[in-house]
Amino acid sequence: MNSILDIHRFLSFVPESEHTLKRFNRLLASASEPPRIAVLGKYNHGKSTLLNAFVGAEKFRVADKRETTEIAEYVHDGVVWIDTPGLDGDPLETDDQKAWRTAFQLADFLFLAHQVQAGELDRYEEGAFLRLARQDRNYSRGMHLLLTQIDQREPDEVAKVERTVRDQLSRSFDLKELPITSVSADRYQRGIRTENAKLREMSGMVPIFATVKRIKSEVTSLRKRETRRLAGKLLADLNDKLSAIDSELTEINNKRREMKRRLLAGSFWVYVLAGTMLTDQKDLIKQIVQIESLLSAGSSDTATKLREYDYDRRNLSARKREILVLQEQVRRVMLECVNDS
Ligand SMILES: Nc1nc2c(ncn2[C@@H]2O[C@H](COP(=O)(O)OP(=O)(O)OP(=O)(O)O)[C@@H](O)[C@H]2O)c(=O)[nH]1
Ligand SMILES: [Mg+2]
After folding, report:
1. End-to-end CA distance of the chain, in Å?
2. Are residues 193 and 50 in the same domain?
3. What is the pTM of this model?
4. Which ligand is nearest to the CA of 66?
């Protein structure tokens, strides 16, 4: 297994890259594991039924109500199949969080389920699909939309819904290439049970099995490509932090220079003043004490400020060195993964 990144160390520099880091580690840890294919969508849209059709057995619980509330996995024929809780069905949204975690971190490929009886995609689904597509510019290549339960509607109605959904997706740059297939997992399973090839054919599931076969053969290269992409993203995020530190350092150096310049100029005027006072020859001792205190007050303030600047400079330089080490780690881990297997 490849080494993985120490996420906590990274988070103190790039807290906004948490998703990227977790996904990156997941990819590294699972580089030689079978592909993980998840089904995602609103509750009751037929996700678990689809999965049962994929694995050829009743391994996932199906019901006519909000049923799946935990992530469930089952390994079949070289694929880890993942069922997710229905989106938008839990008022507390904990179901959604589990489903999103699967989608963003665990899965290599997502089948999105939308039941044909619902007609067009609702705002929640459109938003959710968009969020997925946008998490990574190339991610839509890892998703496929299935319009489910087509046995519940006449073929012309199914075709109409498919057109409407296609129109909806084509309005968005990120989703316009998302593949859509209309299926009935129920019909497929009946086709298998009754050994009825026509039913299996009419289920629309046959090309989807071909897609699964393709995912299996491509998963290693897909993972490598994604690892490289995420590494690039992490390196860029860390580079942004380095630039921010450099700007801070420049600012501190400028302030420091300005302070030194003023200190020199200030001392000059104090000496000029001292010269005038001393020429008066009155209360000589008192005046010398005054001049000394003037000089030392000014210089002690300045010295404190300069010490603060030096402290900040040391801190920033140490952070910079640490970021460079982290960048090196990302490069090394990525190379390990890409050269591996
Ligand atoms: N007629 C028909 N019914 C289906 C089909 N797929 C699912 N159903 C039914 O739709 C209901 C919901 O199916 P599930 O597979 O449990 O749906 P789900 O999306 O997993 O639901 P949650 O687990 O609650 O998110 C069940 O009553 C299924 O029998 C299908 O292709 N045709
Ligand atoms: Mg379910």
Report:
1. 10
2. yes
3. 0.82
4. 1
